[in-house]
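Rotation project, supervised by the postdoc (A.L.). Task for the rotation student: set up a whole-complex structure prediction and record inputs and outputs verbatim in this book. Inputs entered:
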Amino acid sequence: MKRRVFIKGAAVMTAGAAAALNGLPISRALAQNGPDLAAVQGGEPGIMFDKAIQAFGGMKNFVKPNQKVVVKPNIGWDTPVERAANTHPELVSRIIKHCLDAGAKEVVVFDHTCDQWKRTYESSGIEAAVKDAGGIMAPGHVARHYAEVAVPGGKDLKKARVHELVLEADVFINVPVLKHHGGAGLTIGMKNNMGIVWDRGDWHRSGLHQCIADFSTVRKPDLTVVDAYRMLMKNGPRGVSENDTALRKAQIISPDPVAADAASAKLFGIDPAKVPYIRIANEKGVGAMDLSTLAIERIRI
Amino acid sequence: MKPSRLFIGLRILASTAVSLLIILATADLWGFLAPGIVRVATWLQFLPSLVRALTAFGLLAAGFILVLALTLLFGRVYCSFLCPLGAFMDGVIAIRRRISKVKLQYVKPGVVRYFILAGIAVSLFFGSMHLINILDPYSIFARSAQALVRPLAIGLNNLLAQAGELAGYYGIAPYPFSLPPLPVLGVILAWLALVVWLAAARGRLYCNTLCPVGAFLGLASRFSVFRMSMDAEKCIQCGACSKKCKASCMDVENKTVDASRCVMCLDCLTVCPVDAVEFTAPSAAKEVETDPGRRSLLFMGAFLLTGLPSRSAAETGNGYPETIIEESLAASPTEPLAPPLSIKRKASLVPPGGMGRDHFTSACTGCHLCAAACPSHVIRPELVAHQGKGLLAPSLSYEKGFCNYNCNACTMVCPSGAILAVGLEEKKRVQMGRAQFIKQNCVVATKGTECVACAEHCPTGAVKIVREQGGPGLPKVDEDVCVGCGACEFACPAKPYKAIYVKASLIHGKALPPKKGESVQNLVGEDFPF
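Outputs recorded:
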């Protein structure tokens, strides 16, 4: 397998290369008249994903044989599944299975964690689930794995160091967990992208919302799968105890990252227009925040 | 085969096993070695075990009693069978012998070792561990392995990781490379050079001059039941034993063996052409040194007792220091912000289970096993970090990480009781320090943008975001709930100075449990809101 070798350190990818990334032909050929967004509720994470991806004509519309896929869950915290601070492992494992069934060459999973990465991979249950499903668990804590890319559409964020696995991937599937966030209001898909970036301290320093929205123009996920099986309703993004969580048994999936975040915000009970990064990303034309303009498939199990 | 050969084999096996276990404990990047396995090697280490007995109690402290009992029976078997530095020196001596002939010979007993013991007793009386920490053979060995072998292991691991990545295999994760701070590395290298030089030139001279364990066990071995002796009738004074003896204790002229310096390597038994050297229980008639024996018994007792004052000194710490930053918190939001404030830490952070500066520094021998065990790389070896106390005792640094809330790895490996074992639930309440917020450094206060990195990382909910009239959220610290893990300090993006940092508690407190709050209602079955 070939692996792109990045020039270490200050190497800045040219605007041209970044533009190429930006304009990557989205590898999916949506089933004609497929929905813009699917929302499922009432089942376990795996079953819900089966139904949701079916609404889009199956994973084969997103993943072609021999493609390299990156699945990026939220694995930020050294907490168990019941605390709902990380993406549900069952969902991650089901997505991997669908990708492999669609003929993916490899499915790699990683996160640039907040807590100590090894413990986080373990206690979230995601490492075991990934290995079980035949995916590859990759480290996200190594600085040299991140290459600098320009953010041509960025207002406050002009460049960011992005994990090379994402830059090399044919298909990028973002799998956030929907939860409360003390600063961003909510953490959903676009916020989850902070886990593919090395120098996120810059984002906190220069303004979280603008940077999240700026970065959403760089590498749009081909699919966003929002895990709302159990939602962290307060004390987010880490949570203090199980008391902070509510069982919701829902899932939202969409190729439009802004639509996915907007629908999730509504599910959480917050007007998406009041979450600044969703509003800014909408204004930038990254995707559609107004759900009334979208074709939504609602599935109840 | 002579039975002595069998025992020499056993000696090499035991000392190699102990040394390897300690090296593996420092180079175990992946957490393969259970703490219990490492303990097999460390609980028999005489000095840490003795320190543990004097500062804490329990079964783990009993290792030194076993070593003492063995010494009273068989002499200084610790020095050749259990001491990792002794094994290392034996290795150096063996290599030196291969290179060229070393002229070892009998040397009259010196008194340096007793001055060292006296010096330690005096310094312990004043509550200082400095002399012990610099001289203890186990600690020298362990920290040298931590400083030198571990980086090698990391380098090897990272090469393998890189090779794996090229083949698309991510099973080996790269590991952050780190060396101890330069002053620590300097001390370690200097002492290692001294040990190697002494061993190469004079055998086990270190053990009989500078080593406090050697000196102390030497006093005990004067009373040992079994010991080396020369059969005056058989001995032909050929000097073979004296040339072989690493401890320079075979006096062929007078046909006696200085038991206080004999490290029980048993080599002499194999070289005597007439089998005059024997390991036996000497008859009372052969015993000559009665007077020095009595003196040394008194000395031993005095030495054991001197450890106690240091314990009581540890309990007289001056409570929690005054907070100095509070005023800036109280400043009203309308007042203009003062210029950025640099963080001046008065005291260094002590790992959980260390109970605070005084206990920690009075029991730490500077072996740095805790630093090797810390998966978050926040325990950093230091030369003198704790206000002049605790030479080579590590401290916590939150520059490159923070103390993982859900982890008590360091508390499971400390052999000397400086870091006492604390269960995971108990550890989550240990308050190593308290977070302090400096508003004038905070990006939210200076720029008006959202940040919340500190509150986001806080595992206990001690750092909360408070908003006034819908403005951007500023952190507020509930110091009683704070455990001092440093997650907020590490995450704080403010430059040049952090806006939140952990002030060390001189004596560790017990944090209040995280406030759980009301349980949230489940929402299963509600309709889609869109």
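Student's summary: The longest helix of chain B spans residues 137-166.
Supervisor addendum: Chain B has a mean pLDDT of 88.
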